[in-house]
Every structure is written in structure tokens, then in C-alpha cells.
Amino acid sequence: MTMPPRPPSATTPDPWRAHASRIVSIRDETPGVKTYELEFEEASARTGYSFAAGQFNMLYLPGIGEAAISVSSDPDRRETIAHTVRAVGNVTDALTRLAVHDHLFIRGPFGTPWPVTAAGGRDVVIVAGGLGLASQRAAIEQLSRRADGGQTIVLHGAKRPEGLLYASEYDRWRAAGIDVHTVVDEGDAAWTGRVGLVTHLLADLPLDPSATTIFCCGPDAMMVGVAEAAMARGVSAEHVCLSLERNMACAVAHCGLCQFGPHFVCRDGPVLRYDRIASLMRVPQL
Ligand SMILES: Cc1cc2nc3c(=O)[nH]c(=O)nc-3n(C[C@H](O)[C@H](O)[C@H](O)COP(=O)(O)OP(=O)(O)OC[C@H]3O[C@@H](n4cnc5c(N)ncnc54)[C@H](O)[C@@H]3O)c2cc1C
Fold first, then answer.
1. Nearest CA to ligand 1 atom 36
2. What is the pLDDT of residues 133-191, one digit of tens each?
3. Ligand 1 atom nearest to CA at 270
4. For ligand 1, is residue 85 a contact (CB within 6 Å)?
5. Ligand 1 atom 23: residue of nearest CA
6. For ligand 1, atom 30, which residue shows the shortest CA distance?
7. Ligand 1 pocket mutation pick from 60, 83, 92 by most atoms within 8 angstroms of CB
8. Are residues 102 and 211 located together in one domain of the fold?
9. I need a surface site. Which of 1, 46, 154, 206 has the fewest CB within 10 A?
10. What is the atom index within ligand 1 of the atom nearest the CA of 72?
11. Given ligand 1 and candidates 33, 88, 244, which is best to mutate, with the most ligand atoms within 8 Å of its CB?
12. Has residue 267 been placed in a domain?
């Protein structure tokens, strides 16, 4: 399967330029996780910016720093762009202190997208661990409009029920023909769904391995487990795509912080085919 070329964008020709944006809304998602809808201040960025599902932006707070955050909104809905963020450090903590109408800066988009078009006509199984679903939401929105006969299945796992991301959107996704399955490591008194791992959901899924593409995002160990389980079911490694998360700073393959063997995750990833990275995924701490 050929990975799609990077999409044209008005902002990446000058990847160092940070564009001012305004927070239009903030939505609480799961504990410690919020979705920020942003609107560009400059009319040229508003009309010119485009991204593909799976790409990320560097969100910049002057005086604090930058963080790589996936674009989590629908690529075909251009008025605002969304980022779903867990507060874990300098930039993401500072984001939680901002309010609607406050400003932050966007550099991007960067990185390789999910191969949504290349998967045309095939079944797409989206496997997400926790916040990993943020990088896949844009692909889910695009696939919710597919008319190519392929099925879209979402397998989402979280530690606990309150950690299931975008839960209020599952009914809409299902109404659009997407098969949504959830699982948690540990249920609570109200939980009547599955308890276990996303790999268990994958094991139970009827699939045609020759016509299935996997989009997977989550912790490395979970992604390797999913990739190996999919391959054991007969899905070829070239049709298994993982989105990697590594510390990064420049986002343009200069600083080397996100180097992963011969790849720079910021430029050659974050979405990479498993056949290209399987051996690297087994190198501890790479
Ligand atoms: C392609 C890509 C997409 C991503 N998409 C998202 C997304 O959609 N949503 C999201 O929430 N995150 C996403 N991330 C992860 C996000 O970029 C990181 O969590 C980032 O580090 C957050 O920046 P920060 O400044 O808030 O945290 P940092 O200050 O960088 O801290 C991050 C972590 O490192 C630890 N840390 C910081 N400094 C040190 C130190 N000196 N020694 C040891 N530990 C330290 C912190 O305790 C914390 O656990 C993505 C990452 C990548 C690469």
C-alpha cells in the first residue's frame, strides 16, 4: 500500500511561522482531557490552512513553549480546527489556564496522514488506546461519509469507563454506519460493557484479512500487540499503520529529537507502516 503524499497546505511552506489563533470553545472530554476549537486570526490562514487526518500541529504558547498535538477535527470542516489535549506538562498544563477568546499560536500541519484514500474500498479497523483516538477522529469523520462499500470499525479501549474518549459521538458515528466497540481495563458499578484489552476486541472481530487496513494509535506495547494480532489473522504488515508518539521540538526533521532509527517521526511519521518499523518497535527505548 502506498502512503499518500503530504497534502498541500498554506502554512507548511514556512514551517517556522506560527499563526495566531483564538479559542472558540473548550469542551471537557475525559478527566484531564479537553478539546479546544481554534480559529485562525488571519483571514489568509483561515482560508489557506488545510490538513489531512492524522497530521499534527505544534501549539505554541509564548514564554512557555510548543507541544505537538494531533488535529482532531474533520479535515473537510474548515471554519475551526480542534485539538484534544491531556494536561501532562509545561504547555498542556498552561493550555488548561486559557479560556474562550484567549490566543495561542499554531505551526503546521506536519507529518504523514492516515492513508484514508489508499484504503478506499477496503475495511478500515481503527484501533485506539486512550487518547490515541484523538489522532484518529479526523479519519473517522471522513470515513463516516464513505460510499465505497468498505466497512469502518472503531475499537476503542480505555483504562476505565470515564476514560472513553468522544463517548457523546458514538451514536452519531453508528448512525453513519460505523461499527463502534469499546472495552475497559477495569469497569465500575455502572459498566455493562466488555472488560479486557483492545486486542481482545480485535480477536473477536470477523474480518477479511486481504481487504482490511488497520489504523492504530496508543502506547507502543499496545500497538505492537495489535499489529502482531492483525498479522496473525492474515492482515499484511503493509496494511497495518501505526501513529507513533515521540518527544519532538522542531517538527521539521532538523533537531533529531524524534529520531527513530532512520526515520524522523515528525517528518516520516507519525503514521508509519508496520512493515517499515516492526524491527525498530522491538528495540527498547528507541
Ligand atoms: C505526533 C504527536 C501527536 C500528539 N498528539 C497529541 C494529542 O493529540 N493530544 C495530547 O494531549 N498529546 C499529544 N501528543 C503528546 C504531546 O506532544 C506531549 O505529551 C508533550 O510532551 C506535551 O508537552 P508539554 O510541554 O505539555 O509537556 P512536557 O513539559 O514536555 O512534559 C511531558 C512529560 O514529560 C515529563 N517531563 C518533562 N520534563 C522532564 C524532565 N526534564 N525529565 C523527565 N521527565 C520530564 C513530564 O512530567 C510529562 O510527563 C502528541 C505527540 C506527538 C509526537
1. 89
2. 999 999 999 999 999 999 999 999 999 999 999 999 999 999 999 999 999 999 999 99
3. 1
4. yes
5. 67
6. 89
7. 92
8. no
9. 206
10. 8
11. 88
12. no
| Pair 91, 150 in one domain | no
Domain that holds residue 80: 19-110
Per-residue pLDDT reduced to its tens digit, 198-238: 999 999 999 999 999 999 999 999 999 999 999 999 999 99
Measure CA 102 to chain center. 25
In this structure, the answer to whether residues 147 and 215 fall within a common structural domain is yes
| Number of domains the chain contains | 2
Does residue 266 sit within a domain? no
